[in-house]
Design brief:
Blueprint lengths: L4 E8 L2 E7 L5 E4 H6 L5 H8 L2 H4 L8 E3 L2 E3 L10 E5 H13 L3 H22 L6 H24 L7 H14 L3 H14 L7
Parallel strand pairs: 1-5
Antiparallel strand pairs: 1-2, 2-3, 3-6, 4-6
Helix pairs in contact: 4-5, 5-6, 7-8
Length: about 200
């Protein structure tokens, strides 16, 4: 049995990510890929790996040397070791950055969660889709989330409370006329302001 890792490229919401399968069948990615996917600095992943959050994860093997790799067809790859992360650690890093207001990380985690739920539903209802169809759905969810977040930032109002809510609802009533934006604006309105606006 070869002691080399296997390498492949996957696309998640339009983002190409290089992943590896180790001999013990674990999936990992490089630290550089983890930060590149959400436009962060590599120094942040090093800080994260020394945090309590990373250390106390059930799968806390957060420093992995990926050995010399083969691609998925068994051909030789780069003769170098790569500093890697399990996908558990990479996902937790993305989630932590999403919680710290990284818009790309937020959108990526949202799209991935939606894809996971969609796959479960498709399985139970025996719906067959291609990987390309799942990727297209995930990409659409990713882009819509980012657009909705950017929209909320553009209408950010220094006023608080009901004044801010009125500003949002007034803008929403105008934007709902546009079919391309009405879908997610209505959803955001329901989430942020679930109760009727009192005059």
């Amino acid at each position: 049995m070869s002691d080399k890792a296997k390498r492949a490229i996957i696309t998640v919401a339009g983002i190409e990510v290089e992943v590896f399968q180790l001999v013990d069948l674990r999936y990992v990615m490089s630290q550089a890929q983890a930060v590149k996917a959400i436009d962060e600095k590599e120094s942040l992943i090093r800080q994260f790996l020394t945090s309590k959050q990373a250390k106390y994860l059930p799968s806390n093997d957060y420093r992995i040397d990926i050995p010399t790799v083969n691609d998925t067809k068994g051909r030789g790859g780069n003769n170098r070791n790569i500093m890697g992360l399990t996908i558990t650690i990479a996902s937790t890093f993305w989630l932590s950055r999403a919680m710290k207001d990284n818009p790309k990380a937020e959108a990526l985690m949202y799209a991935l969660a939606l894809e996971a739920l969609d796959r479960r539903c498709d399985t139970v209802f025996e719906v067959v889709k291609t990987e390309a169809q799942y990727e297209q759905q995930t990409l659409s969810a990713y882009e819509e989330y980012r657009q909705s977040r950017e929209y909320l930032i553009t209408i950010k109002n220094p006023a608080t409370g009901s004044n801010r809510e009125k500003t949002f609802r007034r803008q929403l009533s105008l934007e709902q006329r546009k079919t391309s934006e009405g879908r997610y604006l209505s959803l955001i309105s329901t989430i942020l302001f679930p109760f009727p606006l009192l005059n």
